[in-house]
Amino acid sequence: MFLKPKRVSRNGKAYTYWALVESVRTVKGPRHRIVAELGELSPREKCAWAQLPQILAAKPAPSPGLFDPAPQAGDVPESVQVLPRGVRVERTRDFGDVYLALYLWRVLGLDKLFSTLLPVHREDVPWATVGLILALARFCDPSSELHVAEYWYRRTALCDLLGVPDDAINKDRLYRAHDQILPHKNAIEAHLREKYTTLFDVQFDLLLYDITSTYFEGLAEGNEQAKRGHSRDKRPDCKQVCIALVVTRDGLPLAYEVFDGNKNDSKTVEDIVKAVEARHGRMGRIWVMDRGMVSEKNLKYLRDHQGQYLVGTPKALLRSFERRLLEADWVTVQAGVEVKLCDGTEDQDLYLLCRSEARREKEKAMHDRFIQRITDALTRLAGRLERAKKKPDRLKVERQIGRILERNSRAGGLFKIQVTEVVRDGEPGFAKVTWTQEESWHKWARLSEGCYLLRTNLTGWRPEDLWKSYIQLTDVEAAFRTQKSELRLRPIWHHTKDRVQAHILFSFLAYAMWKTLEQWMKRTGLGRGPRPVIEDLARMKIHDVLLPTADGRELRVRCVTEPDKSQRILMSHLRLEVPRRLGQPKWVEKPPDVVTNSK
After folding, report:
1. What is the pLDDT along the chain (599 residues), one digit of tens a residue?
2. With the C-alpha atoms ordered 401, 402, 407, 411, is the resulting torsion angle positive or negative?
């Protein structure tokens, strides 16, 4: 049954008359039968008549039997009469990103692991749940524990997804969760290793190792590891700690260690190898490391432990292969990159010469820039000395030259600089700076630009396979960039050692979720950029829709926004199903009336 319009025209004016009709079957097929002629209708009358078929078609609620229980105040019937004019929306909260993060947490099996490691005792909120909240916050919106407790958690749908009320999450509970979860670091790493094998069929024969630093805001006097050292963040004024990370050939994080902020990179290798071997076994390990990790002591340690390695070498060692650089037996491994395999001169290791056209252009531009800087600085210095009215201090002039060369050390070997005394206006003791350029330096720079040397004790590998394995170190560098920028590992605001270690642990967990999403996207053809996916799904919100009813009460329904086209495409590729609403409709509990005594 439905409303059917009939339009007529009289004296040039159009009129619309309405009829209530129903569809019936006849011998000649379906036909419309008029139930009632309604004539012209106002918009309100038309809306009321349009609801009549639904009202007539609805089944009346059965009358309660004699022994049926009385209906409860909170029970919501199957159908109610809603007043459309009073419908409103409250409490819009983030849903899509936290729902995705919660799904990744469960895919990695971390919910079951935390429940096993942290059984429930007398705490109001299980520590496993608090740890989940910390990891999800680091993944979705990295910030401080205070921000998570007072703002972030309250603007997400986690209250409904986890069943933990907003007022149960405070900064003290989050901080105490650090202390509860940190002792299980090794168990978490072992669990992730097993999950990588199950989910992605990961092989752990080749491990990529690198180290970075992250700095503190404040003095960090309560942490003995916080020290000043070589800062990768260009913050030598701040204390720091060094973080060593081991990842698989697919970039999945396997293990990490935290070292003193002033520890040399090469002195961390033995510690990290021992830690990984203790947790994951010794056999079948190929270590890929940058030249900053390389020392003869470290290589000897790996050989003594039947370890295999593929490492970078110091730039100075390239001089020993100058003759091979001039030869033409290069093998192209990809556009613009050539390699050749060479035997060692004094040891049994093999060396791989590599030459990159893009790297050559970059190093050439750097050399040209530093040469120009040194030339300009020396020219200015020489001009000042020529205009000087007083005799300069020769040692001071030489120190100025030393600072110029130090700031531009990549091109310092090109210049041969002399400071001589000259006579001016008949008075000796004035200084003059002159310089020349070494042609031999120019020749070697042009020959070696874009070239680097790798060292390995692997045998039977093709040159292109060695090069591709070493280039995978960029995955570790990408991991550091992601943790520092996307997951905001830096700066560190905690000051005690255990809190710093826990902060890094939750960054490690968030990065494991990040790489899981990346692997997931890669296999479904969505590329390798998790951040756009997270931001796109973050536009999905959850709302409390309040529906006033004819009996004077209100219903509360928690609804998820309908995905748009791009979100539906993402969810289809990821096979992610999002509920349309959370929980069941509930009556709104109104506060009791305030009774006042009046005289």
Report:
1. 777 888 878 777 777 877 878 887 776 777 788 877 777 777 666 666 666 655 555 444 444 443 344 444 457 777 888 888 889 999 999 999 999 999 999 999 999 999 999 998 888 999 999 999 999 999 999 999 999 999 999 999 999 999 999 999 999 999 999 999 999 999 999 999 999 999 988 888 888 899 999 999 888 888 999 999 999 888 989 999 999 999 988 889 999 999 999 999 889 999 998 888 888 777 668 899 988 888 889 998 888 888 889 999 988 888 888 888 888 889 999 999 999 998 866 668 899 999 999 999 999 999 999 999 999 999 999 999 888 888 888 889 999 999 999 999 889 999 999 998 888 877 888 888 999 999 999 899 999 999 999 999 988 889 999 999 999 888 888 888 888 888 888 888 888 999 999 999 999 999 999 999 999 888 888 887 888 899 999 999 999 999 998 888 889 999 999 999 989 988 888 888 888 888 888 888 765 554 444 44
2. positive
Distance CA 267, CA 574 (A): 43
Residue 365 has phi, psi (to 5 degrees) of -65, -35
| Residue 339 phi, psi dihedral angles, 5° rounding | -140, 160
Residue with tokens 């491994």: 333
Beta strands in 138-205 (DSSP E): none
Q: Helix H segments across 234-292?
A: 269-280
Is the C-alpha dihedral spanning 351, 352, 355, 356 positive or negative? negative
- Provide DSSP, 84-101: GGG-EEEEEEE-HHHHHH
Burial class (CB in 10 A: 0-12, 13-18, 19+), 50: middle
The first and second tokens of residue 62, run together, are 């059965």
Distance of CA 61 to the CA centre of its chain: 54
**Cβ contacts of residue 298 below 8 Å, gap of 6+?**
266, 269, 270
Amino acid letter, 261:
G
Cβ neighbour number for residue 588 with a 10 Å cutoff: 13
At residue 82, what is the residue type? V
Please write down the long-range contacts of 24-33, taking CB distance under 8 Å and 24 or more positions apart: 32/4
Which pTM was predicted? Answer: 0.78
- The burial class, CB within 10 Å (0-12 / 13-18 / 19+), for 559 is middle
